[in-house]
Amino acid sequence: MWRLGRTGVTYGHGERVKERGHGVLGEKHTNGEGLEPSFEGVSGRTTVTDPPSMRYSWLRLRTTLDLIRSNPTGRVALKTFVALAGTLVVAVGVVLIPLPGPGWLLVIAGLGIWAIEFHWARRLLNFTRRNVHAWTQWVKRQSWSLRIAIGTVGLCFVAVVVWLSLKYGLGIDVIADLLRYLATH
User: Fold this and answer.
1) Which structural domain, as residue segments, surrounds residue 9?
2) Is the overall model pTM greater than 0.85, yes or no?
3) What region does 162 belong to: left with phi over 0, alpha with psi -120 to 50, or beta?
4) What does the pLDDT look like over 8-37, one tens digit per residue?
5) Same domain, 49 and 66
6) 100-109 contacts: CB < 8 A, separation 24 or more?
7) What is the model's pLDDT at position 52?
8) Contact 18/66 with Cβ under 8 angstroms?
9) Do 57 and 6 belong together in one domain?
10) Are residues 179 and 121 in the same domain?
11) What sign has the CA pseudo-torsion 119, 124, 125, 126?
12) Structurally, how many domains does the chain consist of?
């Protein structure tokens, strides 16, 4: 049995492991009615009787990360690992941005990896989420004709990026080859 509250991680035998500034996870505790699992948010007000397995997995991961952070060597190793893994994913994403593929998705995934340890990355990721959500909501409120125009502009942009990537990255000029083909046939 363990508890991660605003003051840190405590195991069932009462040993304090880590002082931490934000609480996320609760333990099975007695609240006068018996044992029940709880999930405490930063405010400490939320109690969930039976958390879904997905939430439990994330909470276990967060607890594991807090236990790693409780050791100075673990903290440095975790920060280094997260920095290198995030850098690798962001670098691959940046390379794939002009090429066909999930470039921006990988950049955002790398930002999510960095957000595990770095507050600036967490703030930037939250900013990105808010703006993407606001853009999506704005597009949903528009008429079908404007949505089609936005989609067409997006497809043209992707087509130009693919064409330029093929032309300058691989030396294949698709438009010149297509015009040459049409002129000869």
Assistant:
1) 1-70
2) no
3) alpha
4) 444 444 444 444 444 444 444 444 444 444
5) yes
6) 100/158, 100/162, 100/165
7) 64
8) yes
9) yes
10) no
11) positive
12) 3
